[in-house]
From TrEMBL:
Keywords: Glycosidase, Hydrolase. It is an enzyme of class 3 (hydrolase). InterPro entries: GH (IPR017853), Glyco_hydro_3_N (IPR001764), Glyco_hydro_3_N_sf (IPR036962), NagZ_Beta-hexosaminidase (IPR050226). This is beta-N-acetylhexosaminidase.
Length: 538
């Protein structure tokens, strides 16, 4: 292998990422190795300058003032950017927000990378975030919002999914994010239900496998690492792993048929990361969360699926992972086969537990070296070279790419299939929490040539994530579900439509259908009681 001289510290760096990683690992101390497997969050919108509130948060979390100091102190291999919103099902693990807009995120990530390159590893920082789109989306301002995964499932055209996710990847890369904790590879139950909902592509494992492949290719084609989650599958559970240990009760055969295919396809598509779920897969390792199961994270993931990338735990500040102190949980997760630990609740405790494990022999140094070698290989392979300009974020080209997926997802479950869906003026209503979507819908309808008035028109009722039967309006001419469509089974409206998403592009596509200017080619990827998957498509 031809070696290249490095600009940093006079080191000799191999052009081959794996060879380069193997060389770097030989120079790292135990403390360096322990730091490389940690991916906490930090408080503050910038790497070296934060307000007093963020300082206090960082002091409590890590005994430092800024994110850059946290990287330096703990020799971190990664950092996750977080954002809290009240209606996010994953919000409890995100106690702060450090993503505001694309320009700020790019400045933050640049500062974080500068701090990481000063460490002995001289390796890029792995900077991740949960940008699933739909209900779990960290960066919302100024970006091109993709519809939820379920909308892509409704469209049923993986080629459109790949193009949309490539646009997403270009925007994330422009902001300096190197890992997106997406796509969700979980297959949900036939009628939906459970925690995952519209974060899943749907209930058909084979169809989901094609969608996962497309999303991985799109993201990674733009230089951002995709992370499949939540292995071994969170779709056939009723519990929420943020609060308890959900149980997967399927037989081994049913699990392999219903849950495994999208993970297998994602691995075969080259996904760089697989995230372990805090899930009890009884058929494989009863009573043990997958994160801490060698049978699942090593025997199944490494041996059966032949995954060679980085395995990362789901957030270690979730209830099932807090069963033990941070140090013991870290060692258990590493021994199971995880390479990186996400959001440890006690960073020093996790680091010290790893070092104590090395000393006692409960964690073999070879296992830690293996984990860090995988992490460094991935980081060197995806090193940012030609970072896209920020102007790609929210660009008209991306709106066209993503808008094609939105248009293909719109699903009429009951009602007309051609021409304007209502005659005359309309009035758009929604629960108070949906005001932004309501205003967006009004503007989209007006731009499509539909007359909208404050009251007295044919009612278009918008409902979304978390809404229930009390949020429906029996007098509405059209009821639109902007999330998983199950609630439509309770609506008496003559026309029922699912967009699976409340994004501007989804509502723009919906307006075109209501105005009679576009068809509704989508089919619900889950069963909705009493309704066909589409009233318009066989």
């Amino acid at each position: 292998m031809q070696a290249q001289p490095s600009a940093s510290a006079g080191l000799v760096i191999n052009a081959d990422p794996a060879a380069r990683a193997a060389e770097v690992v030989t120079r790292l101390s135990d403390e360096d190795l322990a730091g490389q497997v940690l991916m906490p969050y930090a408080y503050g919108s910038y790497a070296t300058s934060v307000d007093k509130g963020a300082q206090a948060g960082n002091q409590q979390l890590a005994g430092v003032n800024t994110p850059a100091e946290m990287i330096e102190k703990f020799k971190l291999g990664g950092l996750i950017l977080v954002g809290f919103t009240p209606d996010d099902p994953t919000g409890d693990t995100n106690p702060t927000t450090n993503v505001e807009n694309p320009k700020q995120v790019r400045e933050l990530t640049r500062g974080l990378q500068q701090a990481a390159l000063k460490l002995p590893a001289a390796a890029p920082l792995m900077i991740g975030t949960d940008q699933e789109y739909g209900v779990v989306t960290r960066i919302t301002e100024g970006v091109t919002m993709l519809p939820s995964a379920m909308a892509a499932g409704a469209a049923g055209q993986p080629s459109l999914t790949e193009v949309a996710w490539r646009a997403a990847g270009e925007e994330l890369a422009a902001m300096g994010i190197t890992v997106d904790f997406a796509p969700v590879a979980d297959t949900i139950m036939p009628k939906g239900g459970g925690l995952i909902g519209s974060r899943s592509f749907g209930s058909d494992a084979k169809a989901n496998a094609a969608q996962v492949t497309a999303a991985v290719r799109g993201l990674q084609g733009a230089g951002v690492t995709a992370a499949l989650k939540h292995f071994p599958g969170h779709g056939h559970t009723s519990g929420d792993s943020h609060d308890e240990l959900p149980v997967i009760k399927q037989s081994r055969k049913a699990w392999e048929t219903q849950d495994l295919p999208p993970f297998r396809s994602g691995v075969e598509a080259g996904a760089g990361i697989v995230m372990s779920g805090h899930l009890d897969l009884e058929a494989v390792d009863k009573g043990t969360a997958a994160t801490f199961s060698h049978k699942i994270m090593t025997d199944v993931l490494r041996k059966d699926l032949k995954f060679t990338g980085v395995a990362i735990s789901d957030a270690m500040n979730m209830a099932p992972a807090k069963k033990w102190p941070s140090g013991e949980a870290a060692v258990r997760a590493l021994n199971a086969g995880n390479d990186m630990l996400l959001m440890p609740p006690d960073i020093a405790g996790a680091r010290d537990g790893i070092l104590a494990g090395l000393k006692s022999g409960s964690l073999k140094r070879e296992r830690l070296v293996e984990a860090v070698t995988r992490i460094l290989t991935l980081k060197f392979r995806t090193e940012i070279r030609n970072q896209p300009d920020l102007e790609v974020v929210g660009s008209s080209a991306h709106a066209r790419s993503v808008g094609a997926l939105d248009a293909a997802s719109i699903t009429v479950l009951r009602g007309k299939c051609s021409g304007p869906l209502v005659n005359g003026a309309v009035t758009v209503t929604a629960p108070a929490s949906r005001e932004l979507a309501r205003v967006t819908m009004v503007r989209a309808l007006q731009e499509s040539g539909v007359k909208v008035q404050a009251d007295g028109g044919a009612k278009i009722r918008l409902v979304g994530y978390g809404d229930t039967a009390v949020d429906l309006d029996d007098s509405a001419a059209i009821t639109v579900m902007m999330d998983m469509p199950s609630l439509l089974s309770l609506s008496r409206s003559p026309t029922l439509i699912a967009t699976y998403s409340s994004s501007k592009l989804s509502l723009t596509a919906l307006a075109a259908v209501i105005a009679g200017k576009a068809k509704a080619p989508g089919k619900s990827p889950i069963e909705v009681t009493g309704l066909k998957r589409s009233a318009c498509v066989k």
